Amino acid sequence: MTNISAPAQQPSELWRWSATALARGIRTGAISSREATLASLQRIEQVNPHVNALVEVSSEEALEMADAADRAVASGENLGPLHGVPVSIKVNSDQKGHATTNGVVAFKDMVAHEDAPHVANLRRSGAVFVGRSNTPAFSYRWFTNNDLHGRTLNPWDATRTPGGSSGGAAAAAATGMVAMAHGNDIGGSIRQPAYCCGVTGLRPTVGRIPSWFGPADADQALSVQTMLTQGPLARCVSDLRLSLAAMSPFDPRDLVHASPALPGPGLARPIKVAFLRDAGPSKPTAAVLAALDQAADWLRDAGYVVEEVADPVFEEAYKLWYLLAMEEFRQLMPLVEEVGDYGMKKTAEHYYAVAKDWWGEQPDLTTYMNGYARRGTLIVKLQQFMQKYPLMLMPVAAEQAFEQDADIQSVESMRRVMAANWLMMAIPMLGFPAMSVPTGVAGGLPVGVQLLGQRFREDVVLDAGEVIEARAGILTPIDPR
């Protein structure tokens, strides 16, 4: 086993540093990537047994990558944005030489022969891969538990979900195991775990980060083409900005990639913010409303004009997700029945039970086709709305982190979870960029807000996130509680 003892001259507690600070320190020679990587590996040894966020740790590979990063600095090579910085990769994405398990026992030996596009970009950016983060089976739940890797715990409260499906990524970032964690989002899988664990998480515009999901020779499902994005989770907004730059370069394997400049053209000032405070199928709790009101005040203090508005399209888009994405997923149900675990199967059963109230027992092709036609109309409506309001402030969820397994207790408990997480589905349906940013702690659990911007205007979202973060402070890293 590799010796990961700390070097005698290691700067103290490098695992606490942001990715931005680590990258700067490594680039300037103030610290080495080996030192940063050793600090990350030591922190993993200390806290991962308590939360099970990383289900594979690659000490030797990580130190080899770190040493190569240090040699590149010494030889004066061009360095990428995350050069030498320890990161994790979610187990549903191909990383060369590692199994893409997606939390499924039957997939435990499915070793990837090349990196997925987004993983390849992180490697080219100089990132050091220290481990693989947990996900529910088939990356299907907002609760990170599976029969292969076990349950990931929320470091704030083990009785609450760390979120899903990027729950391992969020818990790893929140506890200081990595400076940045990779995730992906087709139904809240970056934003909801970030919210639950008190870190920031960015869902970029569909097409911003090149992606491929599943085996290299498989066809990409239509919902994957139109709704899925890769993105970063980190402890601060500046690290999201840095990671977005690292993950975004073109890869020919992506079929919808676009490369608009970051940042985009300047917006008319003052920027108007549409405040979606109390809308949707689930009334926000007092803690969520307080977080929203506080964030609105902070944005106003920074010169934004914040105006409360009615929901323009999101509740309809939320229900539409359960037609388009779930009817497409129905094709996978025979495989789920064969190799899925109990939680996966029960979650699917409950999703379909709730969705049939809107779409019937099994919608026909005409309904499905009309759904995609309606999707286009909703996108246009939101784009028109955002000509006046280029930024929106809204809840991440109507509640804080749910109690573990609230989705599989009953159909009614799932109905509550789905309603509270309505914006987790609505935004992927429309393809716009959004981020989760913490605002504080209420009742021992993190609370925060969601910001949404115009397509390919991640810069506007990140700028507003930094305003909120400057007032709220950074909640993590923390020790598991």
Structural notes for this entry:
The chain is of the alpha/beta class and 481 residues long. It has one domain: Amidase signature (AS) enzymes, CATH 3.90.1300. Helices cover 42% and strands 14% of the residues. The chain has 16 helices and 13 strands. The chain has an 11-stranded mixed beta sheet with strand order 1-3-2-6-8-7-12-13-11-9-10, with helices on both faces. Strands 4-5 form a two-stranded antiparallel ribbon. The two termini are 29 Å apart. About 1% of the residues have low confidence.
What is the gist of this entry?
This protein is an alpha/beta fold and 481 residues long. Helix content is 42%, strand content 14%.
SSE order and pairing:
Blueprint: H1 19-28, H2 33-51, E1 54-57, H3 59-74, E2 86-90, H4 117-124, E3 128-133, E4 145-146, E5 150-151, H5 167-174, E6 180-185, H6 191-197, E7 200-203, H7 222-227, E8 229-234, H8 237-247, E9 272-275, H9 286-301, E10 305-308, H10 314-329, H11 333-339, H12 342-359, H13 365-388, E11 391-394, H14 411-420, H15 422-430, E12 434-442, E13 445-453, H16 458-472
Parallel strand pairs: 2-3, 2-6, 9-10, 9-11
Antiparallel strand pairs: 1-3, 4-5, 6-8, 7-8, 7-12, 11-13, 12-13
Helix pairs in contact: 2-3, 5-6, 8-16, 10-12, 10-13, 10-15, 12-14
Described by strand count, sense and barrel closure, the largest sheet is: 11 strands, mixed
The structural class is: alpha/beta
Q: Give the total of domains.
A: 1
The first-to-last residue Cα distance is 29 Å
Report the CATH topology name.
Amidase signature (AS) enzymes
Second-tier CATH architecture? Alpha-Beta Complex
CATH class: Alpha Beta
Output the strand order for the largest sheet. Answer: 1-3-2-6-8-7-12-13-11-9-10
Uncertain regions spanning at least 5 consecutive residues: 5-10
Gross geometry = globular
Structure summary, number of beta strands = 13
Average pLDDT level: 96
Total number of helices = 16
Indicate the proportion of strand residues: 5-15%
Order of helices and strands: HHEHEHEEEHEHEHEHEHEHHHHEHHEEH
**Helix content estimate:** 40-55%
CATH 4th-level superfamily:
Amidase signature (AS) domain
